[in-house]
Amino acid sequence: MKRYDIGILTFWNVPNYGTYAQAYALQKVLQSLNKTKEVKQIAHLDKHHYNFYYNIKQYYRENKIWKKAFWKSFLMKETKTEQKEKKFLNAYDEIPHTDEILMENYSDFTFDRIFIGSDIVWDFSLEPFNCDRMLFGENLNGRVNSYAASFGTVKNGDKLPDYVIENIKKMQYISVRDDNSARIVETITGTKPDIVLDPVWLWDFNGDCNIELPREENYILVYGQNFTEEFLMNLQKYAKRAGLSIIALDCNNDSYNWCERLVKQEELSPLQWIGYFLKASAVATSTFHGLTFGLLFNKKIAFCKTDFIMDKVDVFLMELGLYDLFQAQSNVKEMLDYDWNYKKINEIIEVKRRKSTNFLEKACGI
After folding, report:
1. What is the largest CA-CA distance in the chain?
2. CB 312 within 8 A of CB 288
3. Could you report the per-residue pLDDT of 97-107, keeping only the tens digit for each?
């Protein structure tokens, strides 16, 4: 049997920049808090979930479905898939991790403590995740905790599978990333869990020598999808007046004919992705981690909101005093010219950062 001190279970090998960033950050933070122990990512991703990203043909053969309107942003040419896979799999190799753990061999591994999260690891309603019970701690040998886990699109009051209820009740220390997830856990356990920051807030990316900075200067960075035509038109006008170029990081099937430069996914490693945020003059985004890294690096931000993302960050934005600003999503100029008082914002974040770190210390027995 292989024994480890601390294991982290999240979406392993998933080709998503935000997913990688939170996995990278949580391993770094837990290792810094547990200097005499070994902290490893648990190398586990349900095969069905893996096929969704890397073997789309097999995925559709298994499901006998073709919902192009819904899945179109995930469809890629075979050569691009291979290139993208190489970028991400090589990046994940840089995070200390266990041997691959599957349902067939889980009994060969044991841990002192296990942390599940972050990300929407508890959204059992999403078909590609294949109701993976291991994401709720089932069949894992060790004391199971969660850090910044989220139920994603599942709402409080939705019917929960028995395995979700039973496994969450068994957890020792539970923390979540958003209020909706907190309400669901409270319904299950009778106790409201701690709401903590996404792991990327706990790691010093500004001082991380692994971050690769781009050559470009003086640009607005665009990352996301489902931008409205009005949003993009106003963004172009703002960039022209400010003397800034627009660089877009590819994440869907947009033609990107509205920007000066497109950086394609197969050209961009996760640590290079972070570097583009770090060096940007401003950020325009519609994603959770795009917004998070914009705030983390104290950038001016134009946020094209969606209900899916706002459900995850609405309370957080209210606490930072930014909720009303981002309601006027088409007014790019108003958002980018806003008085970004990062002294005040960072003070609020620091209180949350201390609370989040204290949770990890308690769960680690420090």
Report:
1. 63
2. yes
3. 998 887 778 78
Instruction: Mark residue 312 as left, alpha or beta (left: phi above 0; alpha: psi -120 to 50; beta: remaining).
Output: alpha
What residue ranges in 101-227 does DSSP mark as E strands?
109-116, 143-146, 175-176, 194-195, 219-223
Element (H, E) at 144: strand 143-146
Question: Which tokens hold the place of 185?
Answer: 């856990």
Asked whether the beta carbons of 221 and 276 are under 8 A apart, the reply is: yes
Alpha-carbon distance of 232 to 254, in angstroms, equals 12
Q: What is each CA distance from 42 to 49, 96, 236, 244, 290, in whole angstroms?
A: 16, 9, 43, 42, 25
Angle (CA) 194-198-204 rounded to 5° is 125
In the three-class reduction of DSSP (H, G, I as helix; E, B as strand; rest coil), residue 72 is classed as helix
- pLDDT one-digit tens code per residue, 126-155: 998 999 999 999 989 999 999 999 999 999
Calculate the alpha carbon distances from 338 to 297, 298, 310, 326 in Å. Answer: 16, 13, 20, 11
End-to-end CA distance of the chain: 26
Strand, coil or helix: what is 64?
coil
Q: How many Cβ atoms are within 10 Å of 238's Cβ, its own excluded?
A: 20
The region that residue 256 occupies, defined by phi over 0 for left and psi between -120 and 50 for alpha, beta otherwise, is left
Reading the block at residue 177, the tokens are 């990333």
Digit-coded pLDDT (tens) for 18-67:
999 999 999 999 999 999 999 999 999 988 888 887 775 555 555 554 44
> pTM for the full model?
0.89
